[in-house]
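Lecture notes, unit on protein representations.

Consider one protein chain, 307 amino acids long.
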Amino acid sequence: MKPVVVVGGINMDIKGRSKEPLVHRSSNPGKLEMAPGGVGRNIAHNLARLRVPVTLLGVVGEDYQGRQVLERTVEAGVNIEHVLQLKGRNTGTYLALLNCDGEMELALSDMQITESMDQHYLNGQSDVLQSAGFIVCDTNIPKECIRFLIRYANAAGIPICVEPVSVSKAVRIADILNGIDYITPNKDELGALSGLPSEDAGLEAAAQALIKGGIRNVLVTLGEKGMCLVNSEGSSFFQSLRVRVADVTGAGDALTAGFIYGMMKYGDPLMACKCGLAAAAITVESNETVSGSMSETALLERLEWRK
């Protein structure tokens, strides 16, 4: 199996969860945890746990947080040899506040260091990119880098998947969508990318607008409702597995990783969607952003439950 190359955010996550219903504008009792994170890094970590060979490209600082993130990531089985480390810069940080039900209420991210990535860095990784069976990137990286990766992937005949990350970051790439094989927005990000209403009644029309704009497949994530795959052949809906939610943080990253795993293993977008939802189910049942229970065996067991 050729490796997946993931290009994206690498940071330290600080996650706080309230023990009781949140009271705004006040201190709330809860639990704080710190762990490696970043959308791209999380996707790579999940892929490694699913036994997919994966190389991570991104930027960290030469600081304590950066060293900790890379140590934990290489322990997971991810190739970090080509991650750029910058002296005198702080590794990216993500702060999430969860309510007592494990649902995210608010998040802040300081990803300024990721803006240091440029085409010069990516040009230097041509051997890595050329060997990829799949390229995945998130919109934490600069727009020029995403454009470069889309063009590179198209020229080399390598499928590329883009994770929009958030509404504000999705908007930045609305004019460079042509040539993307797979994109994984939630409903809000879909609306930002298409400029159309993306609630239930308008979801398929908004997704089809992206297809007309040059994206080949749109995977709209719908939280507990599941996901919808839209392409030129039509739409397919998939229901989420029933789970007991512990923490939703990282579910989208796991879904993307599960989908890529499914594409690498089966080559079928419909089967890959089921793999993505199985990976998301494993994740939301865990308090960890990348579940310690994530494995190829666990994912395949979830697929059996769907039958």
